[in-house]
Amino acid sequence: MSIRILFIAGFLLLNAIPSFANVANQKNVLDNPIIASFINDMVKKHQFDRQALNSMFSTVKLMPEIIEKMTRPAESLPWHRYKNIFLKDKRIDQGIQFWNENTERLQQAEKKFGVPAQIIVAILGVETRYGRITGGYRLIDSLSTIVIDYPKRRSFFKKELEQLLLLAREESFDPLSLTGSYAGAMGKPQFIASSYRHYAIDFDGDGVRDLLNNTADAIGSIASYLSRHGWQRGNPVTIPATVSNDSYKRFLKKGMKPKVALNKIDSYGVSVKSLPKKSLNASLVELEQESGNEYWLGLPNFYAITRYNHSNLYAMAVFQLSEAVKLKREQKTISLK
Questions:
Q1: In 3-state terms, what secondary structure has residue 219?
Q2: Helix (H) or strand (E) holding 289
Q3: What does each C-alpha distance from 156 to 47, 188, 310 come to in angstroms?
Q4: What is the pLDDT of residues 152-207, one digit of tens each?
Q5: Which residues face 295 on adjacent strands?
Q6: Which end of the chain has fewer CB atoms surrounding its CB within 10 Å, N or C?
Q7: End-to-end CA distance of the chain
């Protein structure tokens, strides 16, 4: 029996008897013109079975709290509050534990892709507490809710809904069983469906790309993702900086992508204690502290981290967690000698 037939059969079996409590919700979702158009597109573009899609979408539950979360993401917090979510002793200690338990895989990833172990560990720490918390929203519900009720991001998440169904068909997943974050990310490294399809790798050689349960694949996929998004082996991530006069504001306006050569930063009123020997470009990162702002230079590796989550706050949290885990792990190793 083909994967496609199994995929369709799974839809029909799981949805043969919809619950009475959700009848009104089911009708609203199926009758929604956006979803109706989406189903038509999936049938025409990708040869999905219409009856199976109707059956699947008849179970969708719209969740208003998802829209609330979309309008108030953690990245909208000031830095001094955002960092306290992640830079805690428990998360640092769990990072050391994860590193010690997966040393060999982390070393393999670093050797192959050039991404330091502490960065991979920190991303897993920020995303899912090292695989402990991967999200409890059914992805078909969260993505459908955003597509229907959040026009500002409808186009992007409609594509992610499409990617989710393609991913499920390709990987033989039951699309109704996939769970994750309110914004559609899944698995230990919290890849959205398009990233899963295009960047997930089978890192342990078992023939399956499994980011939902396989730690080795999660480690390798994070390293591969960063490498493919511009990570530079052996280069620094970010450098603390100081600013003077108002020239630095022109630097800030250049955005997240590194555009200013390090030997030119002084023309923007920005200085650092020491520059890397390598010729690199930088962006200027402004972080809101309780008693004023602090500034950092975002180098290409910092920018690579923002491709995982398009936020300077996110990249800085990853960097500072990675440094904290690495330092404490080294201190514990020394104390044992």
A1: helix
A2: strand 281-289
A3: 22, 22, 14
A4: 999 999 999 999 999 999 999 999 999 999 999 999 999 999 999 999 999 999 99
A5: 241, 286
A6: C
A7: 59
Residue in the structure block whose two tokens are 């970010």: 238
Identified catalytic residue from 68, 101, 127, 290: 127
- Give the C-alpha separation, 211 to 17, whole Å: 31
What contacts 143, CB < 8 A, 6 or more positions away? 157, 160, 161, 164, 184
What ranges do the domains of the chain cover? 3-61+135-186
- This prediction's pTM: 0.90
Q: How far is CA 56 from the centre of its chain?
A: 26
Rounded CA gap, 40 and 46, in Å?
10
Q: 295, 315, 303, 290: which is closest to 80 by C-alpha?
A: 290
* Domain made up of 3-61+135-186: CATH architecture: Orthogonal Bundle (1.10)
Rounded distance, CA 312 to CA 314, Å? Answer: 5
Tell me if 288 sits within 8 A of 282, measured CB to CB. Answer: no
Q: How confident is the model at residue 337 (pLDDT cuts 50, 70, 90)?
A: low
User: What amino acid occupies position 235?
Assistant: N
Active site residue 171: no
- Positive or negative torsion for Cα 35, 40, 43, 45: negative
Could you tell me if 115 and 223 are in contact, meaning their C-beta atoms sit under 8 angstroms apart?
A: yes
